[in-house]
Amino acid sequence: MRAIHTLSVVQLTYMPRLFPVNCYLVEEEDSVTLIDAALPNNVGAILQAAESIGKPIGHIVLTHAHSDHVGALDGLKQRLPHVPVLISRRDARLLAGDKTLAHDEPDKPIRGAVPSTITTKPDSLLEDGDLVGSLRAIATPGHTPGSMSFLDERNGIVIAGDAFQTRGGIAVSGQMRWTFPFPAMATWSPELALQSAKKLAALSPSVLAVGHGNMLEQPLAEMERAIARAERTLDSGRREHNVT
To answer: Domain range holding 142?
Structure first.
């Protein structure tokens, strides 16, 4: 896996030139927090990257429960049985393979690959505003109902899962980038995703770190342009729907 170190964060990327799948190691004083778990064959590379930093993995935190973000989870938990796994309360249901919707959620099918063979159960369920070390949990539903992003309060880095993508050009989740369409195809609610993107932009991140694509430094202007494009696309779709 390719490793890129920015401030407190190491981005680990599997297949960076073909189909980039990112996970992250966030350095704390005595440990590192792993955000997302990539693909099943990435267990060894993730552990090796943590070892090269010289600090043990203290937490495994998941932005959402799609298979390309939790693939190595069982393998990591087998090697690190005492390391707690954390995910949002809502996406814990997806992690268990439950794709049913709550009564107050938009009546749209949950998209994307949801794991059917993951046996690891989360040790803690996250709510908006919870703190994991230096990371503040931020509810950013849209890509999945329980998607979360994480703000490193020491330096303003936002690790956004699939709330944004940068591969193929920056885009809000649900907005098609034809050179890399997969995050859009796997998005549950583009309308909620747009609201979540605005929530992240309001934080004025120093760095935007996403699930697919390179990290962006001082990303606010690009985030705002992506949000404006998403608004135009959704407005156009609503007008067309009203006409028909």
So the answer is: 2-243
Question: Could you say which DSSP state residue 22 is in?
Answer: E
CATH of residue 98: 3.60.15.10
Cα(19)–Cα(77) distance, integer angstroms? 25
Residue type, 229: R
Using DSSP, state whether 191 is helix, strand or coil.
helix
Residues 6 or more apart in contact with residue 108 via CB below 8 angstroms: 188, 189
Q: Within 13 Å, how many C-alpha atoms sit on residue 55's CB side? A: 16
Q: What is the mean pLDDT of each run of 10 residues along the chain (244 residues)?
A: 95 92 97 97 97 97 97 97 98 96 94 92 97 98 98 98 97 95 96 98 98 98 97 82 56
Measuring CA to CA, how many Å separate 173 from each of 20, 60, 124, 201, 230? Answer: 16, 23, 26, 14, 9
Tell me the pTM.
0.95
Going by their DSSP bridges, the two strands 157-159 and 207-209 should be labelled as parallel
